[in-house]
Write a structure and sequence with these properties.
By secondary structure, the chain is an all-alpha fold. The protein contains eight helices and no strands.
Length: 128
């Protein structure tokens, strides 16, 4: 069992693969409204906002999914810093679907970026 404090600590790890797993853990946790109170905190929120801007497609995808899931729960939605959240979601949605040279022929990465944009729309709709 990994605690939220351990996830917060690991979120600043130098290896991107660790940050991907932290982001994935938050996405999994956020799918259950009953445990939102454990990690819907300003510190975790700041981590997820930062992860949304990650160049690693899975880190940002899981972070946006986490935020979208948090927005779907009424009680949690009230605790979120909406202005900062909307700004982050807009950056995700407006971001180009640019691919690096090595990703140009990687359909999976391209589809993950589209999926991330869909999650940002889902969160924005839940906020309205």
């Amino acid at each position: 069992f990994v605690s939220v404090d351990q996830l917060i600590y690991l979120s600043s790890h130098k290896q991107e693969s660790v940050r991907v797993e932290v982001s994935r853990c938050f996405a999994n946790l956020s799918s259950n409204c009953k445990v939102h109170n454990l990690f819907a905190t300003p510190k975790v929120f700041a981590i997820l906002i930062a992860f949304c801007s990650s160049t690693e497609v899975d880190t940002s995808r899981y972070a946006v999914l986490s935020l979208a899931n948090l927005c779907l729960c009424k009680d949690t939605r009230l605790t979120l810093e909406k202005q900062e959240l909307v700004s982050a979601l807009c950056r995700v949605f407006k971001s180009e679907l640019l691919l690096t040279e090595t990703q140009k022929f990687d359909t999976v990465t391209y589809l993950k970026r589209i999926e991330t944009k869909c999650y940002s729309c889902m969160a924005a709709i839940a906020l309205s």
